[in-house]
TrEMBL record:
Top enzyme class: transferase
Pfam family, any one: GIDA
Annotated binding of FAD, by residue: G12, G13, G14, M15, A16, G17
The keyword Transcription regulation appears for this protein: no
Native source organism of the sequence: Yoonia tamlensis
Main location, first listed in the record: cytoplasm
GO CC aspect terms: cytosol
Molecular function via GO: flavin adenine dinucleotide binding; tRNA (uracil(54)-C5)-methyltransferase activity, 5,10-methylenetetrahydrofolate-dependent
Family: Belongs to the MnmG family. TrmFO subfamily.
Listed name of the protein: Methylenetetrahydrofolate--tRNA-(uracil-5-)-methyltransferase TrmFO
EC number(s) given by UniProt: 2.1.1.74
All residue ranges annotated as the MnmG N-terminal domain in the record: 8-377
Keywords: Cytoplasm, FAD, Flavoprotein, Methyltransferase, NAD, NADP, Transferase, tRNA processing
Gene: trmFO
Cofactor: FAD
Length: 450
């Protein structure tokens, strides 16, 4: 059986769809990417590019020895992942994180896919679940209403939804650098550029209390009828965090630890607002962790109370958008296929993984699983000791279906390593054991496919 005789259709050209297409096409499969943008627009997207980043420009930690996300980066690179290749090409200084210049990144992803001889991009909206052919649905958090309804009708289960909040972006030249200073937390990074990747705005206790008061009093965007605000804890709007307690933000995105004010080193800030470079030119900075659903006028008023941002000009203000995902442990088999329609696989955020990296990783697996099926063979199970395996195991049965919520990759999803000790004091040794085991098992799994 020749897999080139078959076509793999992928709905959605985000992180998951782009990675799935790349993996399948490189294995010799003809791929059609169905992307509704720019014909059908979404709240969050600005372009019709594939792989567009709509929220943060960060793929988070790149530490592959002590961090589960960094380990996922390593595994994707080992598998020839497109998203990681392009992220490295357009990397920006961000301490220990992997941040990218978002527009050139998406342009490069688009160019790579469009120039691939086995890939065709069709700009059309798919509104129904296909009854035949080979399909991957990777429509992400902004699945169109018609397709979401078709999925809901087929599965007989209500789609779960939460609101993903977008953080604002500030023009660098409007920031008061007589107050702010450049430093990565704990001076992380191997170069001076990495160690000074974040812009920090210090607050006294009085300034922090005034900020919290303004935040709580600000006018918020109302939810539409029939929508519910079930937030994912990893992406809570700052006002929701503040409502949980006045000190919550000071122990979250505004924590002052690991930072020394270069303008006043003898006085420790009570709280710190961090901004991260958002483009290669360094003209744009996003306010880290400041997702919000405040109205635009209120955002400007509140954010300008932050020291160094009193004259800030905003390239983009925050907003909210709906994120829809399926109850994967109930609906998908261990090959990520819809049980009621096994010709359809799901990948990316719609499966209940959270984050760019996790979405791309599930696209990578879905693409490889589809290739194996088209070739008439079964793909060996991905070891649950790997970051990839831990994630796919979680969404296809490891999670509790009744309480299923979006999940980032984390070491809590991994089976324990025998002989390691629990507790914060032993964390560094334990995490290194997790990542060493994962790398060996992932490489062995890839070698089986060679």
């Amino acid at each position: 059986m020749t897999i080139m005789k078959h076509t793999l259709n992928i709905i959605g050209g985000g992180m998951a769809g782009s990675e799935a297409a790349w993996q399948a096409a490189n294995a010799g499969v003809n791929v059609v990417i169905h992307e509704m943008r720019p014909k059908v627009e979404t709240f969050a997207h600005r372009t019709g590019n594939l792989g567009e980043m709509v929220c943060s420009n960060s793929f988070r930690s790149d530490d592959h020895e002590q961090n589960a996300v960094g380990l996922l980066h390593w595994e994707m690179r080992a598998a020839g992942g497109l998203i990681m290749q392009m992220a490295e090409k357009h990397r920006l200084p961000a301490g220990g994180a992997l941040a990218v210049d978002r527009d050139p990144f998406a342009e490069s992803v688009t160019a790579a896919l469009k120039s691939h001889p086995n890939i065709t991009v069709s700009y059309d909206e798919i509104t129904a679940l296909p009854d035949d052919g080979h399909w991957i649905i990777a429509t992400g958090p902004l699945t169109s209403g018609a397709l979401a309804q078709a999925i809901q009708t087929e599965t007989g289960a209500e789609a779960l939804a939460f609101f993903d909040a977008i953080a604002p972006i500030v023009y660098h030249d409007s920031i008061n650098m007589d107050i702010a200073w450049m430093q990565s937390r704990y001076d992380k990074g191997e170069t001076i550029e990495e160690q000074t990747a974040y812009l920090n705005c210090p607050m006294t206790k009085a300034q922090y209390e005034a900020f919290i008061d303004a935040l709580l009093a600000a006018e918020k965007t109302a939810f539409k009828e029939g929508e519910t605000a079930g937030y994912f804890d990893g992406c809570l709007p700052i006002e929701v965090m503040a409502e949980r307690g006045r000190e919550t933000l000071r122990f979250g995105p505004m924590k002052p630890v690991g930072l020394t004010n270069a303008h006043d080193p003898d006085n420790k800030p009570y709280a710190v607002v961090q901004l991260r470079r958002d483009n290669a030119l360094g003209t744009l900075y996003n306010i880290v962790g400041f997702q919000t659903k405040m109205k635009y006028g209120a955002q400007k008023d509140v954010f300008k109370t932050i020291p160094a941002l009193e004259d800030a000009e905003f390239a983009r203000l925050g907003g909210i958008h709906r994120n829809t995902f399926i109850n994967s442990p109930t609906l998908l088999d261990d090959q990520m296929r819809l049980r009621s329609k096994p010709n359809i696989r799901f990948a990316g955020q719609i499966t209940g993984v959270e984050g760019y990296v996790e979405s791309a990783a599930m696209g990578l697996l879905a693409g490889r699983m589809a290739v194996a099926e088209l070739a008439g063979r079964s793909l060996p199970s991905v070891p649950d000791t790997t970051a990839m395996g831990a994630l796919v195991t979680h969404i296809t049965g490891g999670a509790e279906a009744k309480t299923f919520q979006p999940m980032n990759v984390n070491f809590g999803l991994f089976p324990p390593v025998e002989g390691t000790k629990n507790g914060r004091r032993n964390r560094k040794t334990r995490y290194k054991a997790y990542t060493d085991r994962a790398k060996a098992d992932w490489q062995a799994w890839l070698d089986q496919l060679a």
